[in-house]
Amino acid sequence: MENNNLTLGEFIIENQKHYKSTSGEFTRLLSSIKLAAKVVNYKVNKAGLVDIMGAAGETNIQGEDQQKLDVYANDVFMKTLINREIVCGIASEEEDDFVTITGKEGTNENKYVVLIDPLDGSSNIDVNVSVGTIFSIYKRVTPIGTPVQIEDFLQPGNLQVAAGYVVYGTSTMLVYTSGNGVDGFTLNPAIGSFYLSHPKFRFPDDGKIYSINEGNYIHFPQGVKDYLKYCQEEKDERPYTSRYIGSLVSDFHRNMIKGGIYMYPTSSIGPKGKLRLLYECNPMAFLAEQANGKASDGFKRILDIKPTELHQRVPFFCGSKNMVAKAEEFMANYPEDADY
Ligand SMILES: O=P(O)(O)OC[C@H]1O[C@](O)(COP(=O)(O)O)[C@@H](O)[C@@H]1O
Ligand SMILES: [Mg+2]
Ligand SMILES: [Mg+2]
């Protein structure tokens, strides 16, 4: 199999016909993300040997301690996209506000904006557990050539033109969709190229894995407690297995391959959950739906939520469609929890 498969670059070009863009702009944008992923991967792989471990000593707008690798990954993706003059605006977990890109000529004729979680699973960086990067791409809604506005970023997830993630794990993979199914590419470190290794990912309709931080159990809404009881019951295919890596990208990736559900619900300590709608939930929800899965806030489809803030959080239920539907059944018994 090695090297006989299409490289990501070849695949992107081959699939250009599917992209609602003929200018090659989209192709160049995906190639920029591919390049930045390789640069970050190089650092992640030798995290123990270089000064990239630990906190950076700053906090981001969400009050989280930024890890050195959060800041490094943010710099790499920002610089790569800005230097290549391939987008007109970027929003990032590690940037307080969106960044407007004006080209060397002082204008910008690009039509895409990117929203990014440069390093997902920050709590796992120093303990050698897999982490990731998440990206979401939209066409701007304000006139091309003018400075981007907040409304270019506050678009519902169902308007994404592409979304994806990189998982820096036992191997490094880039997984993405542009609305034509979900494909996975594995980096061959010897050659430095991503090769198509997992064409057309598909969540099994059902699974036997649930992923949730049960340390928060006492704070969970009754619907989640009832669903967990259901998952742990000795009956039919149950009990399910509990698996929680603590990196959304890695838990999602495993569940997409084996069948499972990831949940970060509302709770009495975090009424809106923890995950950010724009650069975590929307891209993962687009991927899930493109791979036969499902994603909601326990009540409504994530991709139909109209965003109101750049860093807003929403409860997240995502994975095998019958498992998410079952969890929603339990949540529906407590409609008051829909108003988080
Ligand atoms: O430690 P907790 O509360 O279970 O949260 C873990 C979740 O938070 C995250 O780390 C949030 O993402 P960031 O690391 O990008 O901030 C997810 O990847 C993960 O699923
Ligand atoms: Mg994250
Ligand atoms: Mg992050």
Short key terms for the protein model shown above:
26% helix; alpha+beta; binds magnesium ion; five-stranded mixed sheet; 7 helices; 22% strand; binds 1,6-di-O-phosphono-beta-D-fructofuranose; 340 residues
Bound molecules: 1,6-di-O-phosphono-beta-D-fructofuranose, magnesium ion
Radius of gyration, taken over Cα atoms and rounded to an integer in Å: 19 Å
Low-confidence stretches: none
Q: What share of the residues lie within helices?
A: 25-40%
**SSE-based structural type:** alpha+beta
Question: Termini, distance in Å?
Answer: 48 Å
Structure characterization notes:
The longest helix has 20 residues, at 25-44. The protein has helices at 8-14, 25-44, 68-83, 222-232, 248-258, 277-290, 321-331; strands at residues 55-59, 65-67, 89-92, 99-100, 112-120, 131-139, 162-168, 172-177, 182-188, 193-198, 209-211, 241-242, 261-264, 293-296, 316-320. The chain contains seven helices and 15 strands. The strands form three sheets. Strands 4-3-5-6-7-8-9-10 form an eight-stranded mixed beta sheet, with helices on both faces. A five-stranded mixed beta sheet has the order 12-11-13-15-14, with helices on both faces. Strands 1-2 form a two-stranded antiparallel sheet. With 340 residues, it is of the alpha+beta class. Helix content is 26%, strand content 22%. The mean pLDDT is 93. A hairpin with a 6-residue loop joins strand 3 and strand 4. It binds 1,6-di-O-phosphono-beta-D-fructofuranose and magnesium ion (2 copies). One magnesium ion binds at residues 70, 93, 117, 119-120, 122. Residues 117, 120, 248, 280 line the site of one magnesium ion. This is Fructose-1,6-bisphosphatase class 1. Mg(2+) 1 binds at residues 93, 117, 119. It comes from Lutibacter holmesii. Belongs to the FBPase class 1 family. Pfam families: FBPase, FBPase_C.
